[in-house]
Predict the structure.
Amino acid sequence: MLIITKKANIAKLGFVGIGMGGSRLAAECTDYISKDTEYPYNSLLVNMNKGDEDSICYNNVSGQRKILLGSGKGTGVDPAVGYYILDKERIKIERAIEEQFKESDFIFVTVGLGGGTGTGALLEIIKTLEIKGYKNIIGLMLILPRIIQGSTKINNTLSPSTQIEHFLLIKDEHFLFGKDSLLMF
Ligand SMILES: Nc1nc2c(ncn2[C@@H]2O[C@H](COP(=O)(O)OP(=O)(O)OP(=O)(O)O)[C@@H](O)[C@H]2O)c(=O)[nH]1
Ligand SMILES: [Mg+2]
């Protein structure tokens, strides 16, 4: 479980959750933190599937913003489609990032790897954050799929992994959780 004490809560954190798993994790972080802290944390929850988006519940309404890209029909668990939709709506994401994280000191990008939305859009959203001035103050929280989830999810995870690995090597801050450590969420 994420434990962030009042004392440690000096930085104003922002969370970009991509896809259903990533959005749930970002919503969980911002809901938890916002209960009794001085600075409410912000999140931007990015989805391409309306059903995924609607399934995300959160309490910190003022600090959280949902954004739906594409037609809302989803990606068919295909990261190439996720990339394509993101690319088409890049300006929408850029604007939302500018508006949502004006005061943030550090941004976590959160994704459940293996689907089409988060896996396909992750690297492009990191690049967008870097262009918008957040270079070197970006962290990643990634949920890895289990083998039991099948070859599509595993293959989808493996294809961008080399690039993600490169990102991790050149950054100082990252968190990598196995799914078992996120059972409460
Ligand atoms: N721990 C946890 N993991 C989740 C949850 N939802 C999704 N995941 C993980 O995230 C992975 C990707 O699933 P989604 O987040 O639905 O994928 P997506 O990014 O929305 O992409 P689509 O295929 O377009 O729906 C799954 O294989 C799970 O491992 C959740 O509520 N809790
Ligand atoms: Mg999904």
Summary: The chain has one domain: 30-182.
